């Protein structure tokens, strides 16, 4: 699991995926979400605007990222 530091109390999923380097541009986020490859705290997620807070776990394929 990799911790990804954020400078605010919350961050949107799409922004987090860009910050973590999972995608290069925001439009790539929709493809990941549409393919069902993203999970937040164990549950499938399809909304790029989902608000994440510190401690949340985002899984993309086999990569786990913790909001830090």
UniProtKB/TrEMBL annotation:
Entries under Pfam families matching the protein: S4_2 (PF13275)
Naturally occurring in which organism (per UniProt): Prauserella cavernicola
SUPFAM superfamilies reported in the protein's UniProt record: Alpha-L RNA-binding motif
InterPro entries linked: S4_RNA-bd_sf
Gene Ontology molecular function terms on file: RNA binding
Keyword DNA damage: no
Keywords: RNA-binding
Transmembrane parts of this sequence: none
CDD domains in UniProt: S4
Designated name of the protein: RNA-binding S4 domain-containing protein
């Amino acid at each position: 699991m990799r911790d990804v530091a954020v400078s605010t109390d919350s961050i949107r999923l799409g922004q987090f995926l860009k910050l973590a380097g999972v995608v290069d541009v925001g439009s790539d986020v929709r493809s990941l979400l549409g393919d069902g490859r993203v999970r937040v705290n164990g549950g499938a997620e399809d909304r790029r605007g989902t608000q994440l807070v510190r401690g949340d776990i985002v899984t993309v394929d086999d990569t786990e990222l913790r909001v830090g």
